From TrEMBL:
TM region positions: none
Secretion signal, residue range per the UniProt entry: 1-23
Gene3D superfamilies cross-referenced by the UniProt entry: FAS1 domain
Record field: compositional bias (Polar residues): 198-209
Pfam families: Fasciclin
Task of the protein: May be a cell surface adhesion protein.
Recorded family membership: Belongs to the fasciclin-like AGP family.
Membrane topology: Lipid-anchor; GPI-anchor
Keywords on record: Cell membrane, Glycoprotein, GPI-anchor, Lipoprotein, Membrane, Proteoglycan, Signal
Record carries keyword Glycoprotein: yes
Name the UniProt record assigns to this protein: FAS1 domain-containing protein
One GO location term (cellular component): plasma membrane
Domain FAS1: 34-178
Length: 240
């Protein structure tokens, strides 16, 4: 065998081994860090109001804890900054602290759902706010083709861009704030306390002036009769 053939054979062998050597020496990708809902939203840059509410209500920490430590996953509907700007003036400021927490939790489902899952769910779907103050706080989903709408009874809006769609966390953009119908339902008035010791609760009865007591046993008539007899006896004595 000539020297040129030997050299060609060695070159061929080395060329075949080179990709294998490179593959073995390439560092393995490091494990991905824990999921952070606010970090996901910050990358897009149009969810500053929702991020602020997530931080103020500590709902963001609750989401991160659940998706990183449970098998159920979660689904978040993230309203854009424009969605909050389109609310009637003062809407957020009029909410109590508890209602702000409920509003944020109303945008979170305690389970992971794909768009396809949302088309076939049984309505209403429970949210993180479900059961608070005895309210349903559920969301209703309808879909056709690739389009899915979410309705609160007050707001109806399509689900748009998926900011994240891999288990255990799905994050979908919505262009309206999901306002729960429970915020607009009048609560039943509290029952009036029962009257104590059989007293009447009617204020008109309580304000009445007591009647003067009537004379007892006809003593008034006896006094008048005795006065007439005394007067007649005095006149008779004077004439005599």
């Amino acid at each position: 065998m000539s020297f040129s053939l030997i050299l060609l054979s060695l070159t061929t062998v080395l060329s075949l081994l080179t990709p294998t050597l490179h593959a073995q020496s390439a560092p393995a990708p490091g494990p991905s860090g824990p999921i952070n809902i606010t970090g996901i939203l910050e990358k897009d840059g149009q969810y500053t109001t929702f991020i602020r509410l997530l931080n103020q209500t500590q709902a963001g920490d609750q989401i991160n804890n659940q998706v990183n430590n449970s098998n159920e996953g979660m689904t978040v509907f993230a309203p854009t900054d424009n969605a909050f700007l389109n609310l009637p003036a003062g809407t957020l400021n009029k909410l109590s602290t508890q209602q702000q927490v409920q509003l944020v939790q109303y945008h979170v489902l305690p389970k992971y759902y794909t768009v396809e899952n949302l088309q076939t769910v049984s309505n209403p779907v429970r949210t993180q706010a479900t059961g608070q103050d005895g309210g349903v706080f559920g969301l209703n989903f309808t879909g056709q083709g690739n389009q899915v709408n979410v309705s609160t009874g007050i707001v109806d809006v399509p689900i748009y861009n998926a900011l994240r769609k891999d288990f255990p966390l799905a994050v979908y953009q919505v262009d309206k704030v999901l306002l729960p119908v429970e915020f607009y339902q009048a609560k039943a008035p509290a029952a009036s306390p029962p009257a104590l010791n059989g007293t009447k609760s009617d204020s008109s009865d309580n304000n009445k002036t007591p009647d003067a007591p009537a004379p007892a046993n006809g003593s008034g008539k006896m006094s008048v009769g005795f006065g007439l007899v005394s007067c007649f006896w005095f006149m008779l004595c004077y004439l005599v």
